[in-house]
Every structure is written in C-alpha cells, then in structure tokens.
Amino acid sequence: MRALLYSALDLAAIISSMELTCREESHIIDLIWEGEKAFFADKYRGDKRKFILDIRYWMHYFYEKSILNQEFPAIQKDLAYGKHTVNMEEYIRDYSDLDLFFKSVRIRILYGKSNGYVRIKLRSLLTQYGYQRRSPFLLQHINRCMLFYHLEATLRGGALCDIETCGLDKMLTFRVV
C-alpha cells in the first residue's frame, strides 16, 4: 500500500496538469497539506516545508521539461567529468502510471474544478494506460485503488458500477465517498 501514497512527484504531475495560476497552485497545495496527510508518503507527514519544496521542484521540472531534456546530454557529460552520476530514469521518463489516475481523480474532485466528479469511459481509461484487456490482476489493482482513495464508480443514473462486469464503452463517473 505504500506505493499508493502520494509522492511530491505525483502531486506535481497532478497540479501542473490542472493549468492553474500561481496563487491557485499555492492554495491547492495548502488545502492538500491540510486535508490529505493520511495519503502522504511518510517523509512529508510532519514536514510542510519539505512537502512544498519538493512539489515545487517537480512542478518546475514539468514546466521546463522540454528545455531540460534538450540539455540533459550536456549535464550528463559534465557530471561524468566530475565522476558523479544521475538517475536518468527519474528525469527523462514520462510519468504515466495507473495509480496516478486514481490519485488525480481524488485531488481533482476534492480540490479542483471538477463539480464533485470525474467521468471517463472504461475503454479510454484502459487505453490511456496501455492496457488492452481487463485481467484479474488489473481489476484487483483498480478495486484496491478505488478502496484506498475512497472512490466509487457509478453509471449514468447513479447506479453503482462493478468494474469487473461493466461494459468497456460505459461512461464511468467517479466520486469520493
């Protein structure tokens, strides 16, 4: 379950994708600090300064990602000259993880401009994260994420949805319960 906790990278990815002003970003970070501590990685639960600085570090990275990626070979060369190393995977990979979707849903519903819900077709959700079918392991993981983040999926009209038996082209509405 530790993998489901929010990291600064997760929150930076979510907040930067919301396209907010600087004031709105700061306000949301403060709201998340006050309301989501149970979902934080251990190192952030008691240290607001570290929490904010790490989120801002990663947000700056996301905003300047294209420029930084162009300069990365020169940085690697300079580091190699000084006999230092850097974890390339941490800086050049695209951050797309199914867990991030559920983290994002919770944050957007509670602190964003989502009207209290997020809607997506099941097929779109699976395709977006590279899945072609619903395996038992995938379904178990989705259900674990929904339980952990206190999310519920409903179909049109408010009927509860079972991800395992729901049609792929059904529109799912996620809400925090």
Report on this structure.
This protein is mainly alpha-helical and 177 residues long. Helix content is 54%, strand content 8%. It has 8 helices and 3 strands; from the N terminus they run ααααααβααββ. The protein has helices at residues 8-17, 22-35, 48-63, 65-81, 88-92, 98-111, 122-128, 136-148, and strands at 118-121, 151-154, 171-176. A 3-stranded antiparallel β-sheet has the order 1-3-2. Helix 1 (8-17) crosses helix 3. The chain is globular. The two termini are 19 Å apart. The relative contact order is 0.13. The model is unreliable at 92-96 (pLDDT under 50).
Strand portion: 5-15%
**Ends distance:** 19 Å
General shape: globular
Secondary-structure element order, N to C: HHHHHHEHHEE
**Rounded radius of gyration (Å):** 18 Å
Q: Taking strands numbered 1, 2, ... along the chain, how are they ordered across the largest sheet?
A: 1-3-2
Largest sheet: 3 strands, antiparallel
Number of strands: 3
Number of helical regions = 8
Helix/strand structural class? mainly alpha
- Percent of residues in helices comes to 40-55%
Mean pLDDT across residues: 86
Q: In terms of per-residue confidence, which ranges show pLDDT below 50 for 5 or more consecutive residues?
A: 92-96
